[in-house]
Amino acid sequence: MKYVDEFRNPEAVARLVEAIRQRAAALPPRQHPWQLMEICGGHTHTIFRFGLDQLLPDNIEFIHGPGCPVCVLPQSVIDQAVALAQRPDTLLCSYGDAMRVPGHHGSLLQARADGARVQVIYSPRDALDMARRHPDTQVVFLAIGFETTAPATALAIRAAAREGLTNFCVLCHLVLIEPPLRALLADPDLRIDGFVGPGHVSLVTGNAPFEFIPAEHHKPVVISGFEPVDLLQSVLLLLEQLQQGQARIEIQYRRVATTQGNPGARAPVDDVFEPAPLAEWRGLGKLPRSGLQLRPGYQAFDATHLLPDSPAPGTLPTADSTTEADPRCRCAAVLSGKLKPGQCPLFGRECTPDTPLGALMVSSEGACAAWYQYRHQG
Ligand code: SF4
Predict the structure, then answer these.
(1) Which of 140, 154, 230, 319 has the highest local Cβ count within 10 Å?
(2) Residues 6+ apart with CB under 8 A from 326
(3) What CATH code would you report for 1-324?
(4) Which Gene3D superfamilies match (predicted)?
């Protein structure tokens, strides 16, 4: 299959691994490994699935970043979604990945088993169609994701506004990639030497959210595709920059990503949304201007108005999302690259894909789920 087989070619992988080995050997010696953070959960999945971390020399290490939208969903948003699903005459529409994320009082899947109306959908348009077909039902779309999913959500809201649909609204937890990266780079306990950037986010945003990394922190970024050869090429490009003492953004994923991104995809987002003063991230806490909220002209589509204790615009729920249900849970440390999944005391015991206690065990893009699926021996 074009664009797949050539990027999984074993000879190409072997050549890249040898080039990485030579490049890594030329790096200045130091006590701890050179740490490369793959920002995106899709990359984390590829790394574990193909064992790419095991192909790297000892002085190079992947650490896993916060770019999995399900993993950063705070429990309080799940609580809100469950509360909305339990309202009479209401249908809560969600991507399948979010169904099993545990809130303080259970997941959407459990709520559905208890009688709440919850529907798995594949795109915001599916939720919009539900609202069109069922005018007596209040349809709530749980909008999650980064800059990649925001355009489709914005287009659905604009269509609902155009059609005068009053039974469609959105529980919005759309987030932006730059603020969590700023938070990670401000953490003195983290030593990140370079970043593997998310190619699909760059497809929309271009280089803009990553420009501060070389400019303010003098660290290289390589925007990468999602196949093994993509990721290994990206590692090689990062090592070349590190060896030469350079720090700039390079695009490995040239078949998709561009420096400027896609202004046509950003336009509806800018029309419908504005940065919220504060948004909450599981594991990272509250980060300023890190999420999107509806602009005043689209407030009619804000599902939080349906909640009994509707929060003020720009503030996300009051429950402390950084507090996990089990105090032994180490989701926050894994999400910020400080721990490997297997170092959490719950991993593979109480917390498994069948019994997830943390969000990182729910999504296939979560570091714990990927580690469990491809690395855990039982
Ligand atoms: Fe969180 Fe479970 Fe991973 Fe521990 S094993 S960090 S509780 S998802």
Answers:
(1) 140
(2) 346, 350, 357
(3) 3.40.50.11740
(4) 6.10.20.100, HypD, alpha/beta domain 1
| Mean pLDDT within 90-103 | 94
- Any atom of ligand 1 within 6 Å of the Cβ of 344: yes
Distance 294 CA to ligand 1 centre (A): 32
What are the structure tokens assigned to 79, written together? 């609580």
Q: Report how far ligand 1's centroid is from the alpha carbon of 83 (Å).
A: 25
> What's the angle, vertex CA 198, arms to CA 191 and CA 140, rounded to 5?
115
Is residue 1 pLDDT above 70, yes or no?
yes
pTM: 0.92
- Ligand 1 in reach of 360 Cβ (< 6 A): yes
Q: Under a CB-based contact definition with an 8 Å cutoff, are residues 54 and 62 in contact?
A: no
Q: 220: which strand partners? A: none
Domain residue extents for the chain: 1-324, 331-372
What amino acid is encoded at 275 in this protein? Answer: P
Across the chain, the runs of DSSP E, i.e. the strands, are 34-40, 60-67, 90-94, 118-120, 138-145, 168-174, 194-198, 221-224, 249-251, 273-281, 285-294
Position 318 confidence tier, pLDDT thresholds 50, 70, 90: very low
